[in-house]
Structure formats: structure tokens, C-alpha cells
Fold each of these.
Amino acid sequence: MEAATEVIPKVKRKAKQKWMTEEILNLMEERRCAKGNKEKYEQIHKKVQEKCNMSKENWINEKCKEIEPQRKHAPQTMYRNIEEITGKRTFLSTGCIKAMNGDIIIDKEKILERWAEY
């Protein structure tokens, strides 16, 4: 085991969220090391939660400040930034259409036939 730790370098953890700072990552590493001491772990965990909440709120506020002027002049960029904040993507195609009588068609061949009718 010692040989492996000497030869293989330790991989530095990366932020999973865009709003995570180096300070948060260091606190998370410190919290991970303090798993044996419950009081210290809970104290560090509380700090991590506070820093995460504050950092995320600041990041969202900055993004909103970027989005506001884009409303009139760059709507495509605005929507891209909104998707980045919300984490939701809009899909253009649902894979189904309505027939002439109002029934929903899901089968690909029938959809193609319906488009040919259209």
C-alpha cells in the first residue's frame, strides 16, 4: 500500500458545481478527514453548508446580473444562462403528434404518414 501511495500521485478533487470555491473544497477535505471525531465533523459540516449556500446565492445573483441586459439584445445567450442556473433543458421534439381526429400518434411510421398528409 505504501508503494502505491509513493508512486501514484493523489488526485486533487474538482468542484462538481460551478459555484464551488477552493475554500469550500478545502473545508470538504477537512470534513472528510474529521469523520472519526463527531463534534469536529458536525462543526466543519455546518461551515461547509454555510459557505455553499452563500457561494451559490452569490453565483446566482451574478448570473442574474448578466442575464438582465441580455433580455433585449441577446435572447439566445439569456436562455442559455437561464438553463445553466436552473439545470433544465428545453426539448424541441416530444416524439409524438396529433392525428386529424385529435388522437396522439406515437409510432414513428404513423407520424411520418401524418406529416405526409400535412
Amino acid sequence: MKRIILSYTFMMILFQASTYSQTALDSVLMHLPAQSTAELQLYMDQLVDLGPSAIVAMAKNINGHLPGKYDMKEHYALSGLARYVDNQTDTETKQVIEEGFIEALNSDLDVETDVFLIEQLRSLASDKSLSTLQAKISKLCEPAIQAIAAIGSDRSIQVLIDALNTSQGYCKMVIAKAIGKTDNQTVTTALTDLLNDSDQQIKMTALNALIASGKPQAFPSILNFAKANPGTGNALLLKYGEIMAQKGNTQKLSEILDQVEAVGDA
């Protein structure tokens, strides 16, 4: 009999804790949007204290909401929370909130909600988010790729390169643009390989990414393109030379000018 009473008491405590958590969340949402910076800090701190489960609960509440309408208190709370935590120096707090967004994205939510959550996660994401974001690439290429690229770690870059090898069309161009902004030798190799792609748009996206990088390793590929396509290629080659010069690298300047002048003399 005593065991039954203890079990019942324990279950009631758990139920009350769960109800209190939801009640606390409802209380915070009721006061949003905040009317001052002090209020905003207070409510965001309260959301942080509620932990990952509050993020999942809010995500489920906005699931199925009218597409394009980010007007619910939950939208305000989630976007405000992401910005607030991103400005904090407390790594542990960021990890807790990141975990909440990961759990929410791993729930069965609609595309609109997933896109919104990924956009909020982007500023907080670490390698911990990679598997979840990677799983979203096939259906939500652009937001997922942008969030992965924002992580900027070696692992995230490798995930992008792996996705480059399995993606096609527009998604492949999105990845090429994203990795072109990173400073990694493996990326230069991957972009150089894309210059042989049968899709002209993908080829030009890769070429422009190589040019924008200003990396010396990209020079042979850009020079070869200029020789094969002097009209467009020489203009791009000069642009590449300008970017390299801005970075303090003028070693290839004479070769660039030789190529341009050779076409002018022809």
C-alpha cells in the first residue's frame, strides 16, 4: 500500500512539474512582445530557464500556421530567443538552446516551420547540429546549406563538399556559392572539379566562387578558362587579379597581364 501511495505521489510530482513548465511558458508568451529592453531580457532569461522542451512546444504550436505569416507570439519568442542567446558569452546556454532547436527540427513539422527554425538556428549552430541540418538538404536545400556554412568548422565544410557530390541543379549551385566563401584548400579542389560539370550554370558558379576567393591555388583553372574563352575569361581574370592584389598577392599579376595583352595583340 505504501509503495502504491509513493508511486502515485511521484507521478503527481512529475505531472505538476510538467504542467508548471507549460504554465510558465504560457505566462511568458502572454507578455510578449516585450515593451522594453529590460522586459525582453527578463522574458528571454525565463525562456532559457525553461530549456529545450519549451522550444519544441513553441515549434509545435506554430506548425501548420498560415504560410508566410510569422505573426504568432511563438514566432516572436523563438526569433528573439535565438538573437538574445547569440549575443551571450555563455557557451552552455547556447548549447541548451541549440539542442532545443535540434529537437524541434527532428519533430514531424511542416516545411514552413522547418524553414523558420533553421533560420533561427543558423546563428547558434555548431557541429552538434550537422546531422539534423544535413538531413534537411534534400527538401530544404538553401536554408540548410546556409546554416551549415555558417558553422564554419572543418566538419561542416566536409558535409558541404559531400553534399556537393550528391546534389544536382540549383542545390549544387547553392552549395558552390556557400563553400566558395570558406578558406579551405579542399574547397578549392572541389570547385575546380566543378569546372568540368556539364551544366554551364554550375560551371560558372564554381568559376565565380574561385575568382571571389582570390586563392592562388585557383589561378591555373582561371587562366585556362581565360585562354579558352578570352572574351569573358579575360575580364574575369582581371577581376581575379584585382581581388588577389587587394589581399596583398601580386605574384601572378604579370601572367595575367600577359594573357590579356596577348589577346589584345591578336
Amino acid sequence: MTLRPVQRVLLLFALFALVAAFGLPSKLARAAAPTLWLPTPVGETWWVAQGFYCGTHTGGLARALDLAKVDGSTYGAPVRAAADGELFVWDGRSGTVILSHGDGYYTEYTHLEGPVSTTRGTRFKQGDVIGYVGYIGTGGFPHLHFVFFRADGPYASNRRGLELDFADGYSFHDTSGCNQHYGTEVIAQGPDTTPPTISFTSPLAVDAWACENQRIEFTIEDTHLVHGFSQAFNEDPAGDAPAFEARSGYVELDWAGEGQHTLHVRAWDTEGHQAYATYGPVGYDSAAPTFDLPATLPSITYTAYSNLRLRWPAASDGDGAGVRGYRLYLGTDSDGTDDWFSADTTVSVGGLDPGRYLLRGQAVAEACEDSAWVTLQELVVVDPSELTTAIPQATATREPTATAPLKRRRPLKPTDRPLRQTAAITVTATRTPTAVDPRSAPLAP
């Protein structure tokens, strides 16, 4: 079919309209510039010996930097590819390597010796060494001449120097005047390929117990930048993003309450790498043990002169470190204390004279504060000759004769009768009361 002139004009108009609306095909679309990293060795401090414009930096490539080491010799220092690319040019007369990064973007490195490759098309990854700083064309001052430029066609014609934005955190844009950015110091970092690290400090060691509130602090380090962290007691603070945008933090034990706890911390860097660490377990015991005693003090009758097994309710330390044992007092003093110790809630005694006694106890904590002294029970010890009925088995237990009794002595002749039990357990005597076993006889009947 032959198109008429009017039809051809309309078709061309439609084609131009489509191009205007949707753009050129993707192959012709302008690509984004490559991400650049400083071409100097990671961790070393270099400085700008000559900046943009003036001196030897003129014309289309006036946006150039001459870089030299701050400490030590620049000669022989390795030079790294600023971005992924392939060798476009090696010019041995000036020691120049030009890497092509695609879509008309190039980086130029001049005054090099010992190029790693002189073969066009050799591929380099960002950070790969491409050569070493030499003396060629430096006028006796070894340095690296670096340019980032855009060019056209297969021969990179019409070269145009570009402003510099390094991913290491340094930017070099046009300002004004001659020798722009002269004296600026830079430290290359390179891409962040490692996760951050988490370190803890605390006066409380792992597996230890604290009797008072303690703080656990932590710090996050990264080769580049820390994004933040999340924290939790006794569970992983999972998530896709940090709860706090900071590089350090802390927790306090009373946030978790009594018990053993483990601190969990998850950290992020700006590249999305994560780190996970824990501190613990650590214990927090803020309260003393307590006894759960009945409202009325138990009063139990025992037979005199025989071995007895005394029992009492166990004390509780809640979520604390626990109870190690009990200090006990057996005597007539309602406020009596002693160093007599039992690891459990039962103890054998023997050789008690007739009378009335008080068994008092103090729970000894595994880690922190001991309990207050409390009266556990009243013992009414009766002479066998005065018994008219059998003593119930639930209230008196006779020990085998093989049990070694406490040291006995002959009962004293009665002088005073024991006081009768009243609602408030108060024991009085005509002489100063002391603990027994074998300290003194009870008040005589």
C-alpha cells in the first residue's frame, strides 16, 4: 500500500507523539551514575594536594583531585578501582588507567606504575587494586590524579569532568575560586560488608545476683554507620527495623523485676546488616525471704528428756535466689536469736527439761538479705510422769536412740511453773532467759 503525502505526515506526527509520551527505548535511556568509593587504601588518611580548577587542572577535566598520603610515603601505595568496571585505556607515558563503568561514565587514575593489567576489557570489582602510585609525571611529588568524567562514543570523546560524591561520606562539588577543596583530608572505608558488633558493660557479672538495681550498658560499633538497635529481656527483639536510632543504650534490672533474666540486643547498620547478642543470665533479688505462718502460733506438746524432731514451714524467696537454710533459736526469750544453723526445715534436739520453749528462726538467703527473725512454734515439754493421755503422733515424734542428742544435763529442781499460753506469746521468767541446747533449763514447772 502506498501512503499519500498527508498520511505520511500524520504517521510521522503520531510517531513523534509516542516518543514524547513514552520516551526512547530503554537502551537509549540515560543510566544512573555508578556509586564511587575513594580509590585510596582503606583506613589511611590522604589529603587533597590540588583541587578543582587552577594549576594543571583546567579545561573539561578541571574537576580533578590530586591525592597524597598524610603520613608516610605515597610512592608505591596501592590504588583501587572506585567502582566496578573494565579497563578502557592504559597509557604508559603518563601512567594513566581509565576504567569504563558503562553508559559513558569513566574514572581516570594517573601517575601509576605497575598496572595490574594492560589488557583492554579486563574486569575489575570496586576495591580491586589496579596499580601503584609512581613518579611518572609527578614532578618529584608522587600523588594520585583522579577524575570522574562522562564522555561520548566508542573513543570517549567530549570528556566532561563531574562533581564527586563518594560513598565513604565525602562530597566535592563546585564552590568558587581556584584550587577548590585543597587541604581536605579523607579516609577510605570501602563498602560495608560486615555486620555491626555489640559489646556490654555492667558491674554485675553473668550468672551473679544483684541485691540492688543494676544497669547493663551496651555499645554498637560498625565499620561504617550504625542505624540503631532493639532490646528486650528474655526474648529476641525481632523485627525489620530498629526501635531506637542510636549506637548505645542500657537497661536496668528493676525493669524486669525479681528473678534471673537475659538481655537480648539486636543491632542494625545503615547497609541493613544485623547483629544479635545476649548478656546473662543475671539475677535480681530485691526482697528478703518470708515465712507463711498461721495466724495463731502453733503450740505443740512434747515429752521431756527424749530426742525430738522439730519441723517448721519453709520460707519463700519469691523469684529471688532462694533460701540456703535457717538460723534457729530454742529458748524462752521472745526476741531470742542464735547462730544455730539447719540447711532444711527439720532439726533434732534432745534432753529438754520440762517447761515452755519458743522455736524462732531466720531464713538465710542464697544471695541477698536474710529474713527477719520470727517465732515458728511454742514447745510445751511435759514430764512423762505427769502425762495422763498419750501424745498424738502428729504432735510428737520420738527419734531412734541412734540419733545423737544434744548435750544433756540433769534437770534442775523446779522452782517456778511455766506460764500458761496466752493469745500473745510472751515468755517471762524469774531469771534471765537464755537459749538452750545445752544452755539452761526452761522455766521449771
